[in-house]
Specification:
By secondary structure, the chain is an alpha/beta fold. The longest helix is centred in the middle third of the chain and has 17 residues. The model has no long low-confidence stretch (mean pLDDT 96). It has 10 helices and 7 strands. Helix 3 crosses helix 4. The chain is globular. The two termini are 23 Å apart.
């Protein structure tokens, strides 16, 4: 009711786990009851700091996805959460994720719903944008972008060794994920954003749309390691300016 009174249109409820028969989502029911449109994330397990895993039986998975859609009628179906984060959210490979995304989106589209990926981590997006600048021959622009978007600790680690195996693997995984979203049926490229720099947000949107051929969308924006409340208004204003769903 508070969300409704503030003029909120969309609501992201708790994730629904589709690796089990019980698909209950109490806050989905409450949100639907007062007319909020659901941005609904489904996960094949996980939670509590543990990553989800690719479905072992895609037919069972698709049947449960269909049930979720019939039960809660979301405005948008979001498949997994931060799928590039193997330690916290998704243990599968990019190829396994594309297979899962394709299965979920095919069900969603058959029922008239839109579908998107889980949302790339903010720091992963920053690395990908910077890599595109670096690959284009502008290392200084790449370093400047990372200085504006990464925490000071992460930026220092990158500058000390930009070719560290961990960094290169993260960039490659991000590229592999981006390469398959459109073919898997996603209607958007979804990413998460925890950066105060508004110009960097615009650069991220341009890169993601160019890399995937999909319109960009974000279902998670916030702030970390920054106590300035102005970040909320500034980033929201940039989102309005960019017409970012």
């Amino acid at each position: 009711n508070l969300a409704k009174s503030l003029g909120v249109v969309f609501y992201r409820p708790a994730d629904v786990k589709v690796d089990r028969d019980d698909l209950t989502c109490n806050d989905c029911d409450e949100a639907n009851l007062i007319g909020l449109k659901l941005i609904l994330t489904i996960r094949n397990g996980g939670g509590g700091g543990n990553p989800s895993s690719p479905p072992s039986d895609l037919n069972v998975y698709k049947n449960r996805v269909a049930r979720v859609l019939d039960m809660y009628k979301p405005y948008l179906l979001v498949v997994e959460n931060e799928e590039n984060s193997g330690a916290l959210f998704y243990s599968g490979t990019p190829q396994q994720y594309h297979q899962e995304l394709s299965a979920a989106c095919s069900v969603a589209h058959s029922k008239g719903y839109k579908c998107t990926n889980g949302g790339l981590v903010s720091s992963e997006v920053a690395l990908l944008v910077a890599d595109s600048y670096k690959t284009g021959g502008n290392t200084q622009k790449a370093n400047d972008y990372l200085k504006r978007t990464l925490s000071s600790d992460k930026y220092s680690q990158y500058i000390r060794n930009p070719n560290a195996q961990r960094i290169l693997e993260s960039i490659q995984k991000g590229k592999d994920l981006l390469s398959g979203y459109k073919a898997s049926g996603a209607d958007y490229i979804n990413f998460h954003w925890y950066v105060a720099d508004t110009a960097a947000l615009g650069e991220a949107v341009n890169y993601l749309q160019s890399a995937t051929g999909l319109p960009a969308l974000t279902n998670e924006v916030g702030q970390q390691q920054n106590t300035d409340p102005g970040q909320v208004a500034n980033v929201m204003q940039e989102i309005v300016k960019l017409k970012l769903p």
